[in-house]
Amino acid sequence: MSMAMAGLLAGMALGFAGYFGGFGAFVLVAALGAVGFVAGRILDGDVEAREFFRARPGGRDERRR
């Protein structure tokens, strides 16, 4: 499936959610779509899960000293 087709389907899903369910449903569908996108990228091997959870250099603990 091309990225244009995936974008079309995502846009249609958000449109239906917004029209029939209101703003709350729109936000819920958008958030779950983002989670699904990230999960798909992790399963495809494009992104590693530890990239989201690694400690940043110069974090809060180092600034307190």
From TrEMBL:
Alphabetical keyword list: Membrane, Transmembrane, Transmembrane helix
Membrane-spanning parts: 25-43
Protein name, UniProt field: DUF2273 domain-containing protein
